[in-house]
Design goal:
CATH superfamily of the largest domain: HUPs
CATH topology of the largest domain: Rossmann fold
Largest sheet: 3 strands, parallel
Protein name: Tryptophan--tRNA ligase
GO molecular function: ATP binding; tryptophan-tRNA ligase activity
Helix content: 40-55%
Number of helices: 12
Strand content: 5-15%
Strand order of the largest sheet: 1-2-3
Radius of gyration: 21 Å
Bound molecules: adenosine-5'-triphosphate, magnesium ion
Number of domains: 2
InterPro entries: aa-tRNA-synth_I_CS (IPR001412), aa-tRNA-synth_Ic (IPR002305), Rossmann-like_a/b/a_fold (IPR014729), Trp-tRNA-ligase (IPR002306), Trp-tRNA_synthetase (IPR050203)
Family: Belongs to the class-I aminoacyl-tRNA synthetase family.
CATH class of the largest domain: Alpha Beta
Low-confidence stretches: none
EC number: 6.1.1.2
Number of strands: 5
Distance between the termini: 39 Å
Order of helices and strands: EHEHEHHHHEHEHHHHH
């Protein structure tokens, strides 16, 4: 949600995801739906943040497969590569060059205060916290600012990172002259969708419904979701968070208020609730899954190569501007 009076005419949109696994409903309602809407209105870049995978784990894992699948997920939800530049972090070395001056603009104390980084450290599988973990929000500032991105459709967890990007842009401009616009976050219908365990729905926390999951996998995941023993289904986020979360999921997929669904289910209990949620999710995802099945890995590779080339050209120009501003 962005201020009404803002003039969106000249915006450049940038977002991205880590290739850590398949996209899920949290991505869709947090960020992807906005991307699809905005691609017709503005120049748009979508970043596959591959280097960011090793912020909270020792190895990048099946990075190539995840990258391809992420791209196929984008295409399946309706991102159009003719309008949108989809690219990989690792294909744009200029981004890492921007990181150096940007790092000099933030203090260690500022990096240590970032609440999203703290939460990710708490969920990380690494024994020791890496330097990359603390500095990746600055890397992300480079990802946004290289294309002079101004509008960033993201979930709530990204708000502290957007503040870092704004801080970097402001301080760079103050120190070296006006180069960067200040980017703004744009949150989706559901800025923090919870997963089936009640925590933030995340690719890497095993609590997500993937856009590409089969109908049976979806049914099984929802069957295993926690509920409570009360027969009467009500929408009470504080008192009955698990039930409320399932109602929220179904409501988003059906485009209906969750309280209304609760009333319809009445005293049908958890079994009816889960049936309603499963049907809503599967119905919603059916066309997305169908489109995905029609795409090939070859499509993904070709689109990524084109996107990388376009993004790189843009990054080279910004880096030249940055060096000139700094007097290099
Ligand atoms: P990982 O567990 O590997 O960090 P993730 O599920 O958190 O994966 P990211 O690639 O880190 O996904 O995030 C991509 C984008 O999706 C970000 O803009 C983030 O804010 C948004 N997003 C992720 N999870 C949710 C969620 N549960 N609700 C709303 N938005 C989300
Ligand atoms: Mg994440």
């Amino acid at each position: 949600m962005i201020p009404k009076e803002r003039d969106l005419m000249n915006d450049v949109v940038l977002t991205g995801d880590r290739p850590t696994g398949p996209l899920h409903l949290g991505h869709y309602f947090g960020s992807l739906a906005n991307r699809v809407r905005l691609q017709d209105l503005h120049p748009m870049y979508v970043l596959i943040a591959d280097y960011q995978v090793i912020t909270d784990r020792d190895l990048p894992g099946e990075i190539r497969r995840h990258t391809t699948e992420l791209l196929l997920d984008y295409l399946a939800i309706g991102i159009d590569p003719a309008k949108v530049t989809i690219f990989q972090h690792s294909a744009i070395p200029e981004l890492n060059q921007l990181l150096l001056p940007f790092l000099s603009l933030v203090s260690v104390a500022e990096l240590g205060r970032n609440p999203t980084v703290k939460d990710e450290i708490a969920h990380s599988s690494q024994a020791a916290v890496s330097g990359l973990m603390f500095t990746y929000p600055v890397h992300q500032a480079a990802d946004i600012l290289f294309c002079k991105g101004t509008l960033v459709p993201v979930g709530k967890d990204q708000l502290p990172h957007l503040e870092v990007a704004r801080l970097v842009a402001r301080r760079f401009n103050d120190r070296y002259g006006e180069v960067f616009p200040l980017p703004e976050a744009m949150m989706g219908a559901q800025p923090m969708l919870k997963g089936l365990d009640g925590g933030k729905m995340s690719k890497s926390r095993g609590n997500a419904i993937a856009l590409s999951a089969t109908e049976d996998e979806t049914a099984l995941l929802i069957r295993k979701a926690r509920t409570d023993a009360e027969r009467l289904i009500t929408f009470e986020e504080e008192r009955r968070p698990e039930v409320a979360n399932l109602l929220t999921l179904a409501g988003l997929c059906l485009g209906r208020p969750p309280a209304e669904l609760a009333e319809e289910i009445g005293d049908g209990g958890a079994a009816t609730l889960k049936r309603v949620v499963t049907e809503a999710v599967n119905e919603f995802l059916r066309p997305i899954r169908k489109r995905r099945a029609e795409l090939t890995e070859g499509d993904a590779r070709r689109i990524l190569a084109e996107g990388n080339e376009r993004a790189r050209e843009r990054a080279v120009r910004t880096l030249e501007e940055v060096r000139a501003a700094m007097g290099f």
